[in-house]
Specification:
Blueprint lengths: L2 H28 L2 H8 L3 H8 L2 H25 L4 H18 L1 H7 L2 H9 L1 H11 L1 H12 L8 H21 L5 H16 L5
Helix pairs in contact: 1-2, 1-3, 1-4, 1-6, 3-4, 4-5, 4-8, 5-6, 5-10, 5-11, 7-8, 10-11
């Protein structure tokens, strides 16, 4: 990597880290170009050069952390010996990520992320799918073994992650859910919804 490329990566990282800090401190309304450039010490021109706009910066931040979350989920199921154990590991990894990174998780589960997902759904889906193969192959392997019901990938994803995403959003916004309790209860409930024999 050339010195210029290295400087560019350092500048990008400064902007992404600053954007997350601004979001954590001031929320969506406070996530502005001026707030990020102040927090990062990086010029306005550099922000536009690297990301094109504040939306481009937020998209890059979402993509970075979505990739990390998906990587942790893939690692969790990769160590499991059967589908039921994998579901437990996936749920615990997701909720553990949310607890360890509440500010990032608020952004990933925010209305801003939903809006970006609707406006740029194809691009984000492509990024997500590029990082999903370990999870997808894990699911398909257990479908082939007869452990997981042969449902469409979209439906299996919704059954696996929908309840976990819902509980996470509630914890992040209202705080009235015990994530440790959810980690104990949800895996078995989710397993019943996707297991080939419904048990």
């Amino acid at each position: 990597m050339s010195p210029k490329q290295h400087r560019g990566e350092v500048t990008s990282d400064l902007l992404l880290d600053a954007a997350l800090r601004v979001y954590a401190d001031a929320g969506e309304q406070g996530l502005t170009v001026s707030a990020v450039t102040r927090a990062s010490g990086v010029s306005l021109g550099s922000l536009y050069h690297h990301f094109g706009s504040i939306d481009g910066l937020v998209n890059a931040l979402l993509t970075r952390w979505l990739g990390r979350l998906l990587g942790e989920l893939a690692d969790a199921v990769g160590d499991s010996h059967d589908a039921r154990t994998g579901v437990r590991a996936l749920v615990r990894a997701y909720l553990g990520f949310v607890q360890a990174h509440p500010d990032v998780s608020r952004l990933l589960h925010s209305s801003r992320a939903d809006q970006v997902g609707m406006e740029q759904g194809r691009e984000l889906r492509d990024v997500q799918e590029a990082r999903m193969p370990p999870l997808t192959s894990w699911v398909l392997r257990h479908v082939e073994r007869g452990e997981i019901a042969p449902l469409s990938p979209a439906l299996l994803e919704s059954l696996l992650l929908g309840p976990v995403v819902g509980v996470s959003r509630r914890w992040l916004t209202l705080g009235d859910v015990d994530l440790d309790e959810a980690a104990r209860i949800l895996p078995e409930r989710i397993w019943r919804s996707i297991s080939a024999d419904g048990a």
